[in-house]
Amino acid sequence: MNKNRKYYSNLEGWTSFFGNIILGALKYWAGIVSGSVALIADAWHTLSDSISSAIVIIGSKISEKPADKKHPFGHGRVEFISTLAISVLLFIIAWSFLKEAIEKLINHDEAHYGTLAIIITIISIVGKEIMARFAFYCARKADSETLRADAWHHRTDSLSSIIILVGIIAGGKLWWTDSILGIIVAIIIGWTALKFTLSSVSMILGEKPDQNLISRVEAISEEIAGPGANTHHFHLHNYVTHKELTFHLRLNSGMNIKEAHDLITQIETRIKNELDTETTIHIEPNN
What we know:
By secondary structure, the chain is mainly alpha-helical. It folds into two domains: 3-205, Cation efflux protein transmembrane domain (Alpha-lytic protease prodomain-like, Up-down Bundle); 211-285, 2-Layer Sandwich (Alpha-Beta Plaits), CATH 3.30.70. The chain is 71% helix and 9% strand. It has helices spanning 3-34, 37-63, 78-106, 115-142, 145-170, 177-205, 211-225, 257-275, and strands spanning 230-238, 243-251, 278-285. The chain has a three-stranded mixed beta sheet with strand order 1-2-3, covered by helices on one side.
């Protein structure tokens, strides 16, 4: 992992860790005082962010390990596993509070909100949105999928707190408000978990290169090998800390081995310098 990724991953991880503990404890206290399952669920949502931040820090540390005999491509894909771990945690929390909210709805249990709940919920909305924006900033700097997952984790927490604030205002007139809010918060958490599970699994399985990358590689190849160069059969392997691209390139069959080798080396060097991607090119005769 380069210094930029390491610095921003650790910075975001530790900032989120302590910020979530403080906000989670405040919301849990307000939930206990008011008897609100929605607030307590939201508190655990926030506290789970502390665990996900710890996962970010640990995953970042493991990703720093260099390549070895068993892992010749490095340990960068630990980031995808870290994102999956965060998603599993969110699924567990969502299911737990969905059941509790449904039980409360069936039993006609009512929450009794007060000024404390309103103040802490507003603090949570503002605090979590600030943390989300900071995490998105660090994600851009580090180009990290795990930090993006953590940022959306913060943002869903902020959105769920907004829903709860609306419910607190209406809670005095409708006894079932808290139960419905608890169900909504659980669904938001579950949807976030599903989204990042699918994204991580897709990255682990491997995705095709985007068209912008292919177009730039084609342009570089034609500039060096000439307009007759034919590129095809692209495969991109994302190891997080670095990317490796393979593709086929048709060249004039009259070239000798040294000429073809020198030309391919030029293309690979340009792609490395301009696209920060390691490349292996398979040569085919252009008949």
